[in-house]
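Good morning,

Attaching, inline, the backbone tokens for the sequence recovery test we're adding to the shared suite. The designed sequence is right after.
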């Protein structure tokens, strides 16, 4: 932390000052806009911005990541808090703050338990399909801010139908302001260091000052009551905390999947080293700080982080500089920010999620003919079921996909390639020859409780179909560890083969599995049975054993 603060004053971070000044103009309007998207007061987005920039700037591992409120987390928070029915609005707000706090605690616990790879439980095709459906939902639900009509139904199709039915009541001047703002953001967005959002906001404030907002019936943001922000815990009963905790799991998973995807992408682009577990702790601290001051959930959004990279950031100091600049802007310009027209905020949100509506990110799945159903299902789930239920279904799909792939483990039979030391799948390489009277098999997924019994039963059945079989070699190269179900299944296979007079040898056994087998003491599977490091060594061991057994009677 001290090193980061000292770096602010060092000459090499001049680029960080430029980057910090540039992204501050983007982040402040977005923070106010995302607060509206989450159904929260505008100051909630500003508080989240301060918490994210400050905590991650001091504790994070990525030099480019900008942690603030994001469109996806704001939409998920709104959907989650709206799922708490038949309670006053104040209670729903408290539940939302409780969700952000519990999500932060989940991050901290995951970081302490070193669960940095948790984001990989949401498959990328599912995440991209969900993001596209979410972006389309966000765009549709930002329209009322511009056109001044508000449908009663919240599900996608009824919402869209009610919007069309209210067409005669639309405020077309507000719609024109929205379209012009979008065009401006798109044109200025070609220069990534340009604070396009800030320029659009300034233009909107000028229109409001000149009286066009009132004349055209376009509402502004309203009061930003930062003076009411204070350190407090949400006043919730124990059942409410339990409900908030359940919803916070979904919020934490989507936040981390989005954040670490951005962090990892930028790190790979520049060859930087980042720490997943350290970032979990930093994100946890940022979300807890935001919740304690009634702010929104925060994460490392790709658009803001990419803008920081494009502006020339060299260290995390850029985020701290942006935090200081935002504080100065809020201090000096708070009354002006209250005059931002709502169509301008809607345009900023739509522009921020626009990249997710580009179908080019989904095209590879259709070209590769892989995971197309997952992409389409995740997209349809958000549209048909809503943001929260669509997110939960998307996560279930990801985990189900993993379990299905592992549970349906394919078993390959290996053969020797050109009488050399290499053994390959005979089905894919017909030129590979089988070793006489020896069956060599390899499960193509790691063994675990969901597939071990089926895999061992399959191997036992294959052994029964080979006439004159004297040995079976099982390659465990895909299994760095074995659970108790796998050990029991392996014991049963060893027992069946021993009854038939067939030797069982293991190859490519990891050190951890060797130590486990020594403790397990499986009958018929002593240390000699898994001494071979390679399949070729195991084959040679069997041939040496056969030669030894033939040589003994000759000597006697």
């Amino acid at each position: 932390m001290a090193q980061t603060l000292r770096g602010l004053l060092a000459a090499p971070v001049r680029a960080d000052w430029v980057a910090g000044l540039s992204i501050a103009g983007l982040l402040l309007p977005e923070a106010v806009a995302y607060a509206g998207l989450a159904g929260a007061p505008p100051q909630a987005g500003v508080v989240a911005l301060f918490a994210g920039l400050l905590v991650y700037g001091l504790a994070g591992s990525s030099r480019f990541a900008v942690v603030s409120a994001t469109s996806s987390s704001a939409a998920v928070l709104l959907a989650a808090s709206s799922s708490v029915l038949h309670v006053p609005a104040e209670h729903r707000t408290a539940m939302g703050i409780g969700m952000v706090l519990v999500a932060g605690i989940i991050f901290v616990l995951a970081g302490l338990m070193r669960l940095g790879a948790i984001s990989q439980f949401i498959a990328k095709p599912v995440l991209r399909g969900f993001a596209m459906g979410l972006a389309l939902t966000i765009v549709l639900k930002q329209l009322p801010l511009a056109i001044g009509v508000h449908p009663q139904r919240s599900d996608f199709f009824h919402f869209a139908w009610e919007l069309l039915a209210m067409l005669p009541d639309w405020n077309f001047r507000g719609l024109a302001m929205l379209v012009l703002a979008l065009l401006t953001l798109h044109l200025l967005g070609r220069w990534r260091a340009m604070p396009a959002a800030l320029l659009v906001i300034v233009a909107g404030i000028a229109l409001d000052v000149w009286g066009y907002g009132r004349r055209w019936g376009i509402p502004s943001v309203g009061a930003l009551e930062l003076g009411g922000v204070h350190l407090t815990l949400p006043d919730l009963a124990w059942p409410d905390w339990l409900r908030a905790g359940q919803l916070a799991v979904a919020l934490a998973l989507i936040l981390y999947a989005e954040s670490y995807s951005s962090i990892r992408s930028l790190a790979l682009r520049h060859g930087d080293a980042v720490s997943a577990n350290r970032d979990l702790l930093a994100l946890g601290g940022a979300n807890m700080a935001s919740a304690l001051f009634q702010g929104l959930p925060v994460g490392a959004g790709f658009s803001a982080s990419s803008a920081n990279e494009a502006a020339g950031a060299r260290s995390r100091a850029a985020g701290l500089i942006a935090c200081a600049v935002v504080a100065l802007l809020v201090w000096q310009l708070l009354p002006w920010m209250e005059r931002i027209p709502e169509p301008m905020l809607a345009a900023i949100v739509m522009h921020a999620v626009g990249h997710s509506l580009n179908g080019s990110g989904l095209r590879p799945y259709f070209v590769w003919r892989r995971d197309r159903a997952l992409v389409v299902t995740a997209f349809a789930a958000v549209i048909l079921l809503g943001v929260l239920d669509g997110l939960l279904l998307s996560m279930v799909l990801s985990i189900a996909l993993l379990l299905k792939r592992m549970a349906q483990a394919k078993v390959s039979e290996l053969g020797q390639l050109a009488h050399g030391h290499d053994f390959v799948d005979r089905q894919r390489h017909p030129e590979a020859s089988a070793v006489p009277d020896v069956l060599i098999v390899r499960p193509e997924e790691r063994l675990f409780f969901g597939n071990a019994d089926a895999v061992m039963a399959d191997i036992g059945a294959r052994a029964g179909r080979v006439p004159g079989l004297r040995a079976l070699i099982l390659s465990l190269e895909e299994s760095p560890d074995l659970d108790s179900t796998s050990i029991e299944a392996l014991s049963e296979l060893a027992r069946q083969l021993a009854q038939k007079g067939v030797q069982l040898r293991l190859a490519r056994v990891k050190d951890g599995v060797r130590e486990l087998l020594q403790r397990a003491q499986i009958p018929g599977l002593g240390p000699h049975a898994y001494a071979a490091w390679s399949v070729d060594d195991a084959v040679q061991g069997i041939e040496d054993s056969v030669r030894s057994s033939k040589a003994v009677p000759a000597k006697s």
